[in-house]
Amino acid sequence: MYSDNGTNFVGAAKELNLAYQAAIRDPNFLNHTALDNTSWKFIPPSAPHFGGMWEAGVRSVKHHLRRILGENTLSFEEFTTLLCKIEACLNSRPIAPLSDSFDDYESLTPGHFLIGSALTTPPEPSLLHLNENRLSRWQLIRHLIERFWKLWANDYVNTLQQRSKWRELQPSIKIGQLILLRNATLPPCKWELGRVTQLHPGADGLTRVVTVKTATSEYKRPIGKLCILPVQSEAITN
């Protein structure tokens, strides 16, 4: 385990090594990993760029975290709470539909791999309209989380829409497909998902407008306001 400057975290490395040695001596553990066809792949020390996608996520968090913190000074407990809330935001993002059922609007998220279900937070009144000098310490944390969510969610949705549809012909959205609706008013960890119920092709036969049904309503939207989920996007492209 290494820090950004390449120094070895001796204590953490020792604990991880002890845990690893205990695991490989356990026949039950080895049998389970063999049955699951588990293979371990490690990146070299001082080479975080080998991490690919997850390091890109870390970079995104650092970038927006610096922007929202500004001149604020947080205690250890406050900063830990903020990071936990940010972690929930990142791990709530939809990846793929959980089923092909037309009435199922649930999606697979990173949270499913961590706790077996989606990560949720109770909705709370927005504090973005209040000045920071009027906030209590807990309200300040909520204020920072909301600001992070607005910046990061918008940045993440933009990456989902970075498709070369204007330069070359792409496969059309299909009826029954689960998509993400772009909605800047949602609170942290909330995403608006819906199923495409109807296509509205233009005179050239290309679909630029669709009807989308969510769990609560039905909308007619241009495809520029919709995002194909990452796994679906890769499947369609391939």
Automatic annotation (TrEMBL):
GO terms for molecular function: nucleic acid binding. PANTHER family: GAG-LIKE PROTEIN (PTHR47331:SF1), PHD-TYPE DOMAIN-CONTAINING PROTEIN (PTHR47331). One of its GO terms (biological process) is DNA integration. This is Integrase catalytic domain-containing protein. It comes from Lasius niger (Black garden ant). InterPro entries: DUF5641, Integrase_cat-core, RNaseH-like_sf, RNaseH_sf. Residues 1-118 form the Integrase catalytic domain. It comes from the Eukaryota.
